[in-house]
Recover the amino acids of this structure.
């Protein structure tokens, strides 16, 4: 997949656990885990916005486009 999810990197920078982020974003642990591992096929803008607010970051800090060769 050409889109890489760097959620784990941002969580590490903010020293936040998956459980803590799950509670603050009001998203189930399993759904957040799917996103974190890069297995998600889509993300709602409202979810992305909530994650960015909690982690104090930009969407580009979480999502990265990598050109496939």
């Amino acid at each position: 997949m050409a889109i890489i999810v760097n959620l784990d990197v941002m969580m590490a920078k903010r020293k936040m656990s998956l459980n803590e982020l799950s509670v603050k974003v009001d998203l189930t642990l399993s759904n957040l885990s799917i996103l974190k591992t890069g297995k998600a096929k889509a993300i709602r803008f409202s979810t992305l916005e909530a994650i960015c607010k909690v982690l104090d970051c930009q969407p580009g800090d979480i999502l990265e486009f990598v050109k496939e060769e």
Observations:
- The helical segments are 7-13, 18-25, 29-36, 45-55, 59-62.
- The chain has five helices and two strands.
- The domain at 3-65 is CATH 1.10.260.40 (434 Repressor (Amino-terminal Domain)).
